[in-house]
Amino acid sequence: MAFTVAKMLKLAVFCNSKVLAGNKGVNRIVTGVTILESTDFNTCRMKNEIVLTSTFFLRLFEKSGVNYIVECQQRMASGICIKPNIADTGFPEDIVNAAERLRFPIIVLTPNVDLQQVISAITYETLRRDGYDIHLSFEENFFQELIVSDKDRDSIIKRGAMIGLGKDELLCALLIQPSDVGIAKDVCDFCLCKWERKCYTLTKNGRVMVALRLTIAEDNKDFVLEIAKTLLKKLEAAMAPNKFRIGIGRNYKEPAQFNKSFFEACNALSVSQLNRSRDPVSHFTDLGIFRILFDYKNREELFQLYRETVGTIIEYDQKNETEYLNTIRTYLNQKCSVNNTAKKLFVHYNTINYRINKIKSLFGIDLDNEEDRMNLYVGIKTADCYDLNKLI
């Protein structure tokens, strides 16, 4: 039986949520959920999926002049769920009118809802209602359920044994993003039939998950990186002119832990895409502070910190045609050297000192204070991580 927006709204996690607009579209089919965490719609696949975002990003769209409801509708999304801030007072009239006209549901969540619970509830319910996908192999169904559902360890061990996985099997997740999402199935076939490594594959929304089987002797990050880079070269040679990016999670000893590796690979791939990294292969352990920035549990606090630091400075710079944020960014990159900052910005030494004093008086930020510098660093990295610099 089809899972629709109307049925989704009956889930416990949507208690006290409300349909702000587009109520006539609640019979749209829902097959999954996607996170809107960038103003670049070209990186999003939304067909038959619920779009999950926060009012923080929606305010960025307002500044850019993009009608995100129209963009989501054009990509055949099922609806949009918005997590508001407690202080939010409403939504722009043109957005609400567009949703009504297009019969595109806007669902406003409660401010204290956990976004990860929303994602898990929708994903689990689509699997539960549809049962196993008859078009997928037993192995693919096993890994799909392993990623999104909360099965007990004994059940996972028993079912894993049916596809040849030991209870202490060492697994690592690779997530492959081809430049042409239409070749995802071909990538799966290549990994299974033309690659010398033992693995399992699963494809969804144009991405390919590879569950890589490792021996104890291969339990090494550098070894896995080399495997991924070799696979990348083979894929690009076999499927030219397509290009690929690969995100890698950590190795985990037993199938029950594989979902951790998968979500780490997702984070590694997302950071690589948003930062437009020159290296197409990214490992989760190399993300540094981005490992924290991409944790859903931290996002609201991160956005609040961004608003209190970098966001405030950006607004001032835009209104007054100043360059305080660029000065701060350069100052931090130059290890807090006034002399080097002045050289980089082609201004006088005293100009930088003047700006540093103005930053303190205008924003209450003391660049001599380690904690203030740390807050600014995190705020700037949040802007970089979530592609907010387009609007700066």
From TrEMBL:
* Name of the featured protein: Purine catabolism regulatory protein
Mind telling me which InterPro entries this protein's record contains?
Answer: CdaR-like_regulators (IPR051448), CdaR_GGDEF (IPR041522), PucR_C-HTH_dom (IPR025736), PucR_C-HTH_sf (IPR042070), PucR_dom (IPR012914)
Q: Could you tell me which species this protein originates from?
A: bioreactor metagenome
Q: Where is the Purine catabolism PurC-like domain?
A: 8-123
By sequence similarity, the record places it as follows: Belongs to the CdaR family.
Question: Where is the PucR C-terminal helix-turn-helix domain positioned along the sequence?
Answer: 324-381
Q: Which residues form the CdaR GGDEF-like domain?
A: 152-271
